[in-house]
Amino acid sequence: MESTFQNLEILKVLNCQNLTNLLPSRPSFQHLKELQISGCRKLVNLVTSTTAKSLVQLVKMRVDRCSGMTEVVVAAATTASEVDNIIFSKLKSLTLEKLESLASFCLGNCTFKFSSLEYLRVIDCPKMKIFSRGELSTPRVKVRYGRGVGEWRWDSDLNTTIQQLHEQKVRIVF
């Protein structure tokens, strides 16, 4: 089964209401370019940090209407001193929408590098106070919030921006 996952370029999982575990913890997705998960209300997280490291070709990720999801990437590191370094070098578009339980993209000790990320949208994620607890590198992303044209905002880094918009209870659209 792992060899099947290695060749996937697009993976869409839609309206699997009772799905609790999307992927085995160690498959490689070295060719995956697009990942969309929608309407999986019992799914708590999307991938482990080990699996996330294999998403080297990923260009677009969308997660929406998964009411039970608390984090997108769950850290595989077992001790506080271990850090998982995850590089999404080709990811250009990330959408997190209508995730009522989402607290963070990752609550564990992970460093994320989003060198190509241009479009980040976080819509109707009322519990999301920070993007990630670990270090973040987002050199190209611009932050837009509000419907329609919206307004541009950047408060020193992505975590600070999300914290301030959350405190102001602004409907966030990046």
From TrEMBL:
Protein name per the record: Disease resistance protein
Organism name: Melia azedarach
